[in-house]
Design a protein that fits this description.
Blueprint: E1 28-30, E2 37-46, E3 56-59, H1 62-66, E4 71-78, H2 85-98, E5 105-107, E6 116-119, E7 126-133, E8 163-169, E9 175-182, H3 188-203, H4 230-233, E10 253-260, H5 262-271, H6 278-293, E11 301-309, E12 327-330, E13 333-335, H7 336-341, H8 343-357, H9 360-373, E14 392-397, E15 414-419, E16 427-435, E17 438-447, H10 448-457
Parallel strand pairs: 7-8, 11-14, 14-16
Antiparallel strand pairs: 1-2, 2-7, 3-6, 4-9, 4-15, 5-6, 8-9, 10-17, 11-12, 11-13, 16-17
Helix pairs in contact: 2-3, 6-8, 6-10
Bound molecules: 2-acetamido-2-deoxy-beta-D-glucopyranose (2 copies).
Length: about 450
């Protein structure tokens, strides 16, 4: 769940139940802390393409089936002036012709041997909701993460469409686009390609990176064989009577955004002897700080599921425009004591080594696993998590998504790009910063008492 795990794209790997307020047309919803009131004006379903065409059925790949069975919701905020809703919706209709799977429908009914996506025909479609807020967008900037975010996108809980979007128009003309997409249809990398294409279409620009649907890379070896234990790492073993699920009342879970300046990140990198990427260094830092904030006992084993984009690791590589899922996890782990004792360089090295192990051979073994066991009921490990991951963490990077290319024109600027509120403990999303000096924003979900501690130590270089 974690790797692309998102531009909005929450790594597209958020898991857990996303509880949302059900937006029915014309309901008036009042937000609490930020006083955001959002009024739904209309909703419609876009069904691009010929309704008389014969629907086609595509079985989900083993990578789709590894994606968690949830929607990922992201928010883009644009200051005015922005194009009118009609232009955004007309552009969306056109763009969906290039991305037919986003208007498809999932069929995972038990009678099917393998779950599949049905594209074309008269079913499916993408939901478009238009909404208005009586405040000015500037009243809410910089956007602070809040449960109110759930007012800004259609509810995943009652979703019937794999892609749903809400256009929230503020009094000033500013716009927040809140979009949800089912993770089994697209990972974060894929969604970044989609949002860029939608924005280019609205601007009347050429779509410079159209999606690639070719799956010729998904080829098992002959005979297929697994060098790694994918039952257990990615999927729960058959007939396992699981597990150590931890569930708390969602009100005990909070979301926070930690801002790291470019200068602070340079300090961290120097501390890690400059040997690791910014991402590895920053995750090493946060893994240690969150372990302290959670007050894990010395001998507790803590693990990070780091989502890794498989496209660049396969040989030959798959284009980043491949649309669908191609993400696996790296699994660095250590006891809490070792993690703290070995300092930042040690933590960054563990992450680096684990990511390095997700190579062509590992991914090929996973492809072969899909060939050997595709007819079984595959339950991704995410689906048996409770809403508390501790002592584990799940990490997604949205740093490589070209979010800055998501420009619908009109002259307004992208002012924020965030996941929605997530009532699930243990997620870390690394986002491009919107501060003065660039930097990086990190979205973290923790129990409230641990979040309080993390706020105090998040910038300590110890
Ligand atoms: C929004 O901003 C405009 C221009 O500054 C101002 O006239 C108006 O009162 C503001 N509206 C609200 C609801 O604050
Ligand atoms: C799982 O349980 C089913 C039904 O009880 C049984 O047919 C199947 O052989 C079991 N599979 C494994 C791997 O034990």
């Amino acid at each position: 769940m974690l790797a692309c795990r998102v531009i909005l794209f929450l790594a597209w790997t958020l898991h857990g139940s996303i509880s949302c307020i059900n937006l029915s047309p014309c309901s008036l919803l009042h937000g609490a802390s930020t006083n955001m009131d959002v009024h739904v004006l209309s909703s419609r379903v876009l069904r691009p393409g010929d309704p008389n065409s014969a629907p086609s059925k595509a079985p989900l790949t083993v990578f789709d089936r590894f994606a968690s069975n949830i929607y990922i919701a992201v928010l883009f905020a644009f200051s005015p002036p922005t194009p009118p809703n009609d232009a955004l919706i007309a552009g969306l209709s056109k763009t969906l012709l290039l991305f037919p799977t986003l208007a498809g429908r999932l069929d995972d009914s038990r009678r099917l041997r393998r779950p599949c996506l049905i594209v074309g025909g008269c079913g499916g479609g993408a939901l478009v909701v238009e909404a208005a807020a009586s405040s000015n967008l500037s009243d809410h900037l910089p956007l602070e993460v809040s449960p109110d975010f759930q007012l800004l996108h259609p509810s995943p809980a009652s979703a019937v469409h794999v892609f749903q979007v809400q256009l929230n128009r503020f009094a000033c003309g500013g716009l927040i686009i809140g979009a949800t997409a089912h993770h089994r249809v697209a990972d974060g990398q894929s969604m970044s390609i989609f949002f860029t294409a939608w924005a280019q279409t609205v601007r009347g620009a050429f779509v410079d990176r159209p999606p690639v649907y070719d799956q010729s890379w998904l080829k098992p070896r002959c005979p297929p064989h697994c060098e790694f234990n994918h039952w257990g790492l990615e999927f729960t073993p058959l007939n396992s009577s699981s597990v150590n699920q931890i569930d708390v009342d969602p009100s005990e879970i909070t979301n926070m955004l930690i801002r790291y300046s470019a200068d602070f990140i340079q300090k961290l990198r120097r501390k890690a002897e400059g040997k690791y990427t910014t991402f590895e260094t920053l995750i090493g830092h946060l893994w240690r700080k969150i372990t302290v904030a959670r007050r894990l006992e010395d001998r507790v084993q803590t693990m990070v599921r780091v989502s890794v984009n498989g496209r660049t690791r396969l040989k030959p590589p798959v284009p980043n425009e491949f649309f669908g899922n191609l993400v696996l996890n790296a699994y660095p782990q250590a006891t809490a004591k070792d993690l703290i004792d070995e300092g930042l360089p040690g933590a960054a090295m563990m992450i680096h080594e684990a990511i390095r192990r997700v190579d062509d051979r590992y991914i090929q073994s996973f492809i072969d696993f899909g060939e050997l066991y595709g007819d079984e009921e595959l339950v991704p490990v995410y689906d048996v998590d409770g809403n508390v991951l501790s002592p584990m963490l799940e990490v997604d990077s949205w740093l490589r998504f070209r979010f800055e290319d998501v420009d619908f024109g009109g002259g307004g600027a992208l002012r924020a790009f965030l996941p929605t509120w997530v009532p699930f403990e243990g997620l870390v999303m690394v986002l491009p910063g919107f501060g003065e000096d660039g930097g990086i924003d990190v979205f973290v979900t923790l129990l409230e008492e641990h979040a309080k501690m993390l706020r105090q130590i998040s910038h300590s270089l110890d």
